């Protein structure tokens, strides 16, 4: 059973990940984000949510180099959250954390 779960979990890693790519000022609803295939060069996505000169700026993209350097999770210095999985950069940082925890608990129940 564990082997089957391991095989199923490893399949998405071999397939290109899809991320939201684009930007917004103020609120996410003010931006333009496109569902983009990141190719085989990246299995991560990122979302940066920062305030520049008093304006909230949200950027989403494939995590090719950024997430390789930062790792998965939130980096308070840059405002960047890196995640793995299709369109994982659509949610807020809190939602990403909760989703990751639920997935980990579900996986542990199978083992």
From TrEMBL:
Q: Which domain of life is it from?
A: Eukaryota
Domain Snake toxin/toxin-like positions: 35-89
Please give the Pfam families that the UniProt record associates with this protein: Toxin_TOLIP
- Read off the PANTHER family from this record: ACTIVIN_RECP DOMAIN-CONTAINING PROTEIN-RELATED (PTHR34721:SF3), PROTEIN CBG09734 (PTHR34721)
Its name, as the record gives it, is: Snake toxin/toxin-like domain-containing protein
| Gene expressing this chain | WBGene00111169
